[in-house]
Every structure is written in C-alpha cells, then in structure tokens.
Design goal:
The chain has five helices and eleven strands. A hairpin with a 5-residue loop joins strand 4 and strand 5. The protein has one domain. The strands form four sheets. A four-stranded antiparallel beta sheet has the order 3-9-7-8, with helices on one face. A three-stranded antiparallel beta sheet has the order 1-6-11. It is α+β, with helices and mostly antiparallel strands.
Amino acid sequence: MKEILHFTTMRNWEKIAKSGFVEPRSDPLWCFNFEERKSDTYRKYDEKYNGQLFIVGIPPGSYDAWVDWGLNLVHHAQDSIVLSEPWNYTKPQVSLKIPVSDLKNILVREHRHLSKIEYEKVYGDVNPIGFQDSRFYPRQKIKYIDSTVYLNEYGGNYDVPEIWLPYKVPLSIVTVNFSDK
C-alpha cells in the first residue's frame, strides 16, 4: 500500500493547513463508551495502545466495498470522496491522499464488523439504528478491535479495510481535494 485517503471537515482542514501537518487524533478504542471503559476487556486493549492516537483512512480503491457494506460513501470528483456514518454529524468536506512510506506500526482493521449489512447477516432484519442495537454492537466492537493487524502482516483479506497511521505527516507530501458539497 502506497497511500491512504483520510477525510476531514473544512474546520479541521484549516487547523491542518495552519500547522503544516496531518496529526494523529483518533483514539483506537473510540467505539467503547464511558461505562465500557471501566471493564477488564477495555483495560486489556488500553494497555496495548497506551494512549497512542492515529490518523484513520481507507485504501484508495476500497470505496465500492464501503458502499457495498452500507457504510455510506458519497462519491465526488476524482478520488475525492466523503465518508460519513450515522454518528458522524459533521460531513467531511476535504479528502487527503496521504503517502505511506514508513510501514512501521501501521494498523489495519476490518470495519465490516460495524456495518449495517453485517447486522442484517447476524439478525436477518434491517434495523435503522442497526450497529447501535444492544444485541449486536458490543460483540461486534470486540470483533472489530480484534481484527487489528499490522500492515506489513496484512494479507489483503478484509472486505472493508480501515488503515490507522501512528505518526504525523507533513502537509507538503499530501494531496488535498475539496468537496463541492
């Protein structure tokens, strides 16, 4: 993998442009709520990541897989796409194509585990809140977190790959595309 696509809002883009870097800001344990963070399961994962933050993106060419799994990718001009999910109330307006050269400590996860389609496969029905359903989401979060592998060990076998970069990237090597919507 030579690059990833990272999506952000215009407001965040202004901060990125000012700093000159795309910086890691995503918690790898974002899917655990306040109560779950008190559990032994959470503590096990928390020790592994030790507070490290990441830049999250997708491999170019994986758009169709995200759409096929009900993860709402909105297409725009060449390689500029917007990723939005039900909990994302601020629609991303900027896509950043980030070169990946240092493969050390880059993670890959299978986002399919948190999709509406996966919910339908497990329960045989469509629920408008699907992934938030209390029967489904706690178990699926663990599958999602446990799918984490290092990029250099990744075999390309995930349906909806999600890439986690652990380092900041200078804006001078990033290609920026602005959404018109």
